[in-house]
């Protein structure tokens, strides 16, 4: 099916893009990598009258080291994150997650900002940024605002963006020493959307007691979810088989999957949440203690 006709706009600055979006309102859609929006347009599930292309906007494609955090521009491609030495050094879970996204073509075109703003619960970045306790910077007609990633996801395909606002930056705190993370997902075939996925990030003290736990869930609810009870199960305790099992059980209970004729029943997905949380935490623990690949 062909897309409905639209007017194409290519601003060169963030200010110009925001002005256009604010003026055109609900008749306009923003396109970055196009890997989420274009398929919806082909199916006529999205029929914008105006398409605002951000790819000519300068200054939104970067990965920067800023003291205690990593700054990632919204137009940064998945492949750039996958191959970044800075990412591999400080937040290797992001490089790992990027390598699991679809296929090389999608990774070379798709952007982290576009993926997050699309708010697909099966998108990989949401759970990973949740596990890392990240933030997003939003640029609007009047001023910028910064919010925790948890507050950005309102519902399926519904980001916390007001009229005229664009997601322009992702901010990731650098994990402390003795940290490790892992992102695992179950898919029907390589490159498919996740049936279920779990991102886990741990920080331990010198005695092996958990000082930080971040657990994000992919495709297990209406949005990317934080498994808060599972995180609390680990905090202040030694991370071992017993605490990991308790956290895995809590994550399964917190998940909110639905029946899907293509990817399985809610009961099956909840069971996979338990399995993947267990495996991700064990791998994160091994990496935090220097024993994991």
Automatic annotation (TrEMBL):
Organism: Caldiarchaeum subterraneum
Family annotation (InterPro entries): CO_DH_flav_C, CO_DH_flav_C_dom_sf, Diverse_Substr_Oxidored, FAD-bd_PCMH, FAD-bd_PCMH-like_sf, FAD-bd_PCMH_sub1, FAD-bd_PCMH_sub2, Mopterin_DH_FAD-bd
Source domain of life: Archaea
Record key words, sorted: FAD, Flavoprotein, Oxidoreductase
Name this polypeptide is given: Xanthine dehydrogenase family protein subunit M
Keyword Oxidoreductase belongs to the record: yes
Residue stretches making up the FAD-binding PCMH-type domain: 1-177
Gene Ontology molecular function: any one: oxidoreductase activity
PROSITE patterns from the UniProt entry: FAD_PCMH
